Amino acid sequence: MNVFSPWNRIAAAVTAVLLAATFPAGRLQAQEAAPPTEPAILSVHPLGARAGSALDIDVQGYLLEGARAVWFEQGSIQGRVRDVRAVSAEGNSDSEGAGEDEPVLQGVRVKLEIPSDALAGVHRFRLVSKLGVSNALMFRVNSDAVLDETSQPHQTPSMAQQVPVPAVVNGRVAGDGEEDFYAFEVTEAQELRFEVFCKTPGKPPDDVGLDPELTLYEPTGSWFDQERTTRLAYNDDPSSYHVSRLPQLTYRFPKKGRYLVGVGAFLGGGSPHFSYQLRIADSSAPTFAELDRSGYDRLPVPWKERAFRRPIGSGRLDLVRSRSAGSDGIGANGRLTNGAASSRGEPVQSDANGRGGQASVILVKEQENGERKGKTLSISVPGIAEGTIDRPGDVDRYAFKVERGQQVAFEVETPQVGPPQFNPRFGILDEEGRELFSNVYKRLGRQLTFYLKTVEPKTLYTFERSGEYSLVVSDLTRRFGNAGFRYRLLLRPQIPHVGEVRTDTDRLNLVVGQASKIAVTTDQEEGFSGDIALVLEGLPEGVEFFPGTEVKAYQGPVPEDGLRPRFAPTSESVVIVLLAGADAPATPLPVKLRLLARPISDDGLGPGLLIKEIPTMVVRPSRGAKES
Description:
Elements (H helix, E strand, L loop, with lengths): L5 H17 L2 H6 L9 E6 L2 E3 L3 E9 L6 E4 L5 E9 L19 E8 L7 E9 L2 E2 L3 E6 L3 E3 L12 E2 L4 E6 L6 E8 L4 E8 L13 E7 L11 E6 L2 E3 L3 E9 L4 E9 L9 E8 L5 H9 L19 H6 L40 E4 L11 E2 L4 E6 L7 E7 L4 E7 L10 E6 L5 E4 L1 E5 L6 E5 L2 E5 L4 E9 L10 E8 L3 E6 L5 E4 L3 E11 L5 E7 L5 E6 L15 H4 L2 E11 L10 E11 L2 E2 L3 E11 L9
Parallel strand pairs: 2-9, 10-12, 11-13, 21-23, 22-24, 34-41
Antiparallel strand pairs: 1-3, 3-6, 4-7, 5-6, 7-8, 7-9, 12-20, 13-19, 14-18, 14-20, 15-16, 15-19, 17-18, 23-32, 24-31, 25-30, 25-32, 26-27, 26-31, 28-29, 33-35, 35-38, 36-39, 37-38, 39-40, 39-41
């Protein structure tokens, strides 16, 4: 969250002074990211277009010599490289002070043809050059008409560009201190949503991105300044970190008239790479994030074990069970595509151990303003409690029974609004009303000087006594509540299974005769003690892979983790080394390398879980290149 107060300014200034005093300029530069060694694209402009259109886009990045193809990961968009050119560093802050050995910023002009049936939402694409495949950038396909930012100055309220409602505008915050103004007309009591789509800052070397802010104005004027505006609303933070990291505003206009919306960069920065799309639409229309999620249905979705936005439904128990060893799995050819299947399906038949039986996952809905308001509802294990903290101080109560030694997993979902707005807290009380535990995780902070507390989306507990217990759900502080504070809380038997499997590898450019690696981290959930086999499918011809080891950097003393097993899984890391043999042929376009994980235990071999599809190319060194 971007919070900038006078205290933040003081802290930032003190930090800058301390850094300058501690690290001379030379040492600071030495700690910067190393120059890229494979194609890296930084920005694209314009950022989107309407389905059924054709247009030229400008992609800028490094090591793009010989760029010959545009590769879209999904969908039917076709692209053709027109030309490659060097880009002047003038006015480009990230190119200032470039040395002779540093790569030259380049621009690639690409012709895109977007079919009329292209799905609305983001489409990831990469460039292919003689050095391999680049990282991915996003291009948005819009269902509404798209306007271009005018070439005339519109950085003041009096020069605002007039746009219709609804509207999608392609723009760019090119200079420091720039704020682009757009004027529009509304009717009385009309409610509109304003949102920005752009590339946000990431990791080096492709870390260039816009941190946008939205401001809504009414041109009111004054005795002293006829151009004066009154600020109505402002936002530079996402509405929910679990839906989108981009800001949006929803505003109901009390009277008809002409209003303004401004788009700028947080802290006033500007760059030719800061492209954006501004969307003005009715508040009932789907958001950018909702449109993107509908498009993601055709992509492999990473399994989410501990996130407030992962879907919790009656099918969740079956999905968890399918990630355990000895499970038959679900999906084609015995493979589970990482939980991409809907988890809101039919009730799952399972016994107390989650292994299959006659007990269903029963949904119990807390009913506000009804006959059950304020009463304790009964819920079974497995079962789902669904409700809303619709007002400050609201507390929902449920009763459930367990046997001695029963191991239960509690999983919470916030379908609409999650942290930091809605922080769902639940506690489990015994028959005397004493709280046994909650989903608040307390541990010592990294500086070893304070305790860090967070609400967690998943909590494990083993009950020492048989009996009836109470489940109490509220907002963390009980000071907030509204119709968007919805929750779904699943009580289910603990099932040892493979949790999230992560790798930071975005693409692989395998140079003949050189080794590359994929670092993989696996989470073992709920006491899973078996092995996890990693498999690579779709290897290019002449490429082999081997298990490897890696020395981890010293991380310092381990802080006090509190009751970590209750709130976090155990994790292990492994390295996969890939080697393209001397006879491996170069690949003209990327192939999708499929990384799968298979759980193994005494119960047998589990299904292949698709972890990631990695664009991969084999690259042969050009003549004259230095031998490694």
